[in-house]
Amino acid sequence: QVQLQESGPGLVKPSQTLSLTCTVSGGSITTSYYHWSWIRQPPGKGLEWMGVIHYDGSTTYSPSLKSRTSISRDTSKNQFSLQLSSATPEDTAVYYCARVRPGYPGSWGQGTQVTVSS
Fold first, then answer.
1. What kind and span of H or E run contains 82?
2. What CA–CA distance (Å, rounded) separates 89 from 118?
3. Section 103-117 average pLDDT
4. CB atoms within 10 A of CB 25
5. Residue-level pLDDT at 27
6. To pair with 9 at 20 to 30 A between CA atoms, which of 20, 41, 86, 105?
7. 92, 100, 91: which is closest to 24 by C-alpha?
8. Which DSSP string do the residues of 32-62 spell out, in sequence order?
């Protein structure tokens, strides 16, 4: 059974880059037809999809975040990462990584709180 675990700093200063890593076990991030996403939930708000890195390494981003978001992967470590530049307090949220395959149940990490504050 696949497991995902987010990791990274819990506190980021405004204007800095927010960086998180998702470590995957029990399944390869290069397996066909699986897609690896980042989602966040600001306090008191709903879930926001940020972007995805597909099994072939291509990426797709939310239009609203595209200019600040980069998702990459390290296949040797079976990890994928999120970088969100020019962070503001509005980026404060619980960040989740998830595995998605259309037509199948998704798998999510437990989430990690990131606060953007000076």
1. strand 79-84
2. 9
3. 94
4. 10
5. 93
6. 105
7. 100
8. TT-EEEEEEE-TTS--EEEEEEETTS-EEE-
